[in-house]
Amino acid sequence: MTHQAPVPPSEKESFGERLQKALSARGPLCVGIDPHASLLLRWGLPDSVDGLRSFADTVVSALADRVAVMKPQSAFFERFGAAGVSVLESTIRQARQAGTIVILDAKRGDIGSTVQAYAQAYLSPTSPIAADAVTVSPYLGFGSLAPVIDEAEAHGGGVFVLALTSNPEGPSVQHARTSDGRTVAQTIIDEAAACNAKAPVLGSVGLVVGATVGDTGHDLSALNGPVLVPGLGAQGGAADDMRGLFRDLRGVVVPSYSREVLSHGPGKSGLRDAADRALSACQKALF
């Protein structure tokens, strides 16, 4: 992976435009920041706030000026309480300053003033925990996400909506049929596409589609937005799986690796080499 200059955010650019530029400049790769207790142990770090901080600082220092996207998993920071959230704030801030796009993996979903508060927490520029984009759950109805989508639009942020997840329990809900014959997942896909319909380049409302879902027959062709693809590497998905799944979506797919890269720490060169291998595999599969 060759070093690329940072991709600075611009208030005049939408999230979709910034993401597309980052993927073009640095290649189609997102690296998750998932400080599992087992990973901390593997790195020789204590399962504590100090271990969490050392882990996150090392990953950001090694990769944030090289990869297009990084994705901290909020839960692994939250488990340490306020001190862990403080580390998360610092991690997001440092990663963004280094030029990578940060998607906060929080999977929040609620209604009314509560979801509005989540939107302000994760997407308002005045929030200490603000990221470039956030993952959300639509299972209180897609319309419940309106405050998050509005907040994102107001500040040039992005939203990634869970659509087709790779956990075995997912299909019982996501593949269920609605009254008009579409699956629940297809209604989510179509609602996201409607949000992006007027975007001049790439819309800022994306979807989360697991790498291991297989060919489900869902139609993403009208999305005009990015697709975040977790589940690659240690979770069982392979880069080659994306060839069939996303054959009509080249250039907007954001493949995400976590343990497959993170397990090669704590040395920075090991992390960089693993990220290089993951990026090479994704480029071969998507181009």
Question: In a few lines, what is going on in this structure?
Answer:
Pathway: Pyrimidine metabolism; UMP biosynthesis via de novo pathway; UMP from orotate: step 2/2. The chain has 287 residues and is α/β, with parallel strands linked by helices. 43% of the residues lie in helices and 15% in strands.
What would the keywords be for this entry?
single chain; alpha/beta; TIM Barrel; OMPdecase_type-2; 287 residues; lyase; 15% strand; RibuloseP-bd_barrel; EC 4.1.1.23
List the helices and strands and how they pair.
Elements: H1 15-26, E1 30-33, H2 37-42, H3 49-63, E2 69-72, H4 74-78, H5 81-97, E3 101-108, H6 112-123, E4 133-136, H7 146-155, E5 158-164, H8 171-174, H9 184-196, E6 205-209, E7 227-232, H10 241-245, E8 253-257, H11 259-262, H12 268-286
Parallel strand pairs: 1-2, 1-8, 2-3, 3-4, 4-5, 5-6, 6-7, 7-8
Helix pairs in contact: 3-5, 3-12, 6-7
Verbal overview:
The chain is 43% helix and 15% strand. It is of the alpha/beta class. It has one domain (15-286): TIM Barrel (Alpha-Beta Barrel), CATH 3.20.20. The protein has an 8-stranded parallel barrel with strand order 1-2-3-4-5-6-7-8, surrounded by 7 helices. Helix 10 (241-245) links the parallel strand 7 and strand 8 (253-257). Helix 6 (112-123) runs parallel beside helix 7 (146-155). The two termini are 16 Å apart. It holds the Pfam family OMPdecase. The active site is at 107 (proton donor). Its EC number is 4.1.1.23.
Give the SSE string. Answer: HEHHEHHEHEHEHHEEHEHH
Largest sheet features: 8 strands, parallel, barrel
Number of helices: 12
CATH architecture: Alpha-Beta Barrel
Residue ranges: pLDDT <50 for 5 or more in a row?
none
Strand arrangement, major sheet: 1-2-3-4-5-6-7-8
Distance between the termini: 16 Å
The total beta strand count reads: 8
Basic shape: globular
Rg over CA atoms, rounded to whole Å, is 18 Å
How many domains make up the coordinates?
Answer: 1
User: Which structural category fits the helices and strands?
Assistant: alpha/beta
CATH superfamily: Aldolase class I
What is the name of the CATH class? Alpha Beta
Instruction: Estimate the strand proportion.
Output: 5-15%
Enzyme class: lyase
Protein name: Orotidine 5'-phosphate decarboxylase
EC number: 4.1.1.23
Catalytic activity: orotidine 5'-phosphate + H(+) = UMP + CO2
